[in-house]
Amino acid sequence: MQINNILVIGSGAMGSQIGMVAALAGYHTTIQDIAEESLAAARAQLSSRMDNSVAKGRMSREVADEALARLHFTTSLEDGAANADYVIEAATEKLEIKRAIFAALDVAAPTHAILATNSSTLGSSKVASATSRPSKVCNMHFFNPALVMKCVEVVRHEDTSQETIDTTMELARSMGKSPVLVNKEIPGFVANRLMGALRDEALRLQEAGIASIADIDTTAKTALGHPMGPFELMDLVGIDVSYLIRMATFEETGDESDLPHPDVKALYEAGHLGKKSGRGWYAYDDSGAKK
Ligand code: 3HC
To answer: What does the sequence similarity comment in the record state about its family (predicted)?
Structure first.
């Protein structure tokens, strides 16, 4: 299937960078968000990321400018979807919001368009049933920061067609990513389940006073070769994201051991959302450096 136009729903950390990845790969890309100020912030951040890449000699000014020119921003889902061949939804991790978005996309997007969700927890069958095209729905799950991380999990549900999977795998490759196929819906797929096991143990270790947060992070980096420790990673991804993912998992499984850890809940409720709010497990200055 030929893809020319991509629509990304949501202009948060994931949606904005997924949009930039698509534009850099040569696709005419639109990022849609209901919040004008979030779109403006995304535009400014992406432009400054491109400036950095140019300054570091990673990209020519021309390539950066062409990619930015291929990137459009809108508050109208209908306008963004009108000529979309492929849609990637990266809105908040709440099922009822996602289902409403998929129902609206089903009406507004051309019948050939594939509708993918970037959700890391909710299998796409949950949103496919809000559309009249379940065979054209799957998960296309990127990792934070999406401009850098190579992995994309492509997850099928029972009725996803092979054509949808093949097109999505090919799309990810064309974006310079390394897609992996997840054959069955399971909350957290593969990567977040691996990461969750490490994070849960890190939370238990700090709760029991076995080692400090900083020392647990240092151990993950210097003993296991991870680029970031589990607490640093929670701050990067967002405490709200960690919290909502566990809530969504709990809602799916009903298993109380899937509920967010009380310390994560406390940070979430206090509005300490990680790097983006200046405080999470660590405190950050305006440049995003640890204080
Ligand atoms: N956005 C975009 N680019 C970023 C970035 C960000 N937030 N942070 C760093 N980068 C870029 C830098 O600009 C730099 O690019 P360059 O090579 O062109 O100069 C490159 O990444 C390397 O950055 P740094 O040298 O500053 O720092 P590091 O070498 O430590 O790399 C990192 C930063 C890539 C974030 C690395 O620490 C890392 O890989 N961390 C682990 C990230 C991870 O595990 N992500 C998965 C999270 S789970 C998830 O997303 C699932 C979801 O469902 C919750």
So the answer is: Belongs to the 3-hydroxyacyl-CoA dehydrogenase family.
DSSP state string for 18-61: HHHHHHHTT-EEEEE-S-HHHHHHHHHHHHHHHHHHHHTTSS-H
Q: What atom of ligand 1 comes closest to residue 143's alpha carbon?
A: 50
In the numeric block, which tokens belong to residue 119? Answer: 């959700």
Ligand 1 pocket, residues with Cβ under 6 angstroms = 49, 52-53, 56, 58, 120, 143-145, 147-149, 192, 195, 227-228, 233, 237, 241
Q: How far apart are CA 282 and CA 291, in angstroms?
A: 8
Beta strand spans in the chain (E): 5-9, 28-32, 71-74, 86-89, 114-117, 137-141, 151-155, 178-182
In sequence order, the β-bridge partners of residue 63 are none
Give the closest residue (by CA) to ligand 1 atom 33: 227
Tell me the per-residue pLDDT of 250-284, one tens digit each, with 9 for 90 and over: 988 899 999 999 999 999 999 999 999 999 999 99
pLDDT in tens, 206-244: 999 999 999 999 999 999 999 999 999 999 999 999 999
For residue 144, give Cα distances in angstroms to 163, 195, 278.
Answer: 27, 13, 18
Prior bond to 145 cis, omega within 30? yes
3-state secondary structure of 284: strand
ipTM value: 0.95
Query: Is the separation of the CB atoms in 31 and 8 below 8 Å?
Result: yes
Question: Residue 239: what are its φ and ψ, rounded to 5°?
Answer: -60, -35
Ligand 1 atom closest to residue 241's alpha carbon, by position in its atom list: 54
Q: Which residue has the tokens 């709010």?
A: 277
Instruction: Please write the tens of the pLDDT for every residue from 124-140.
Output: 999 999 999 999 999 99
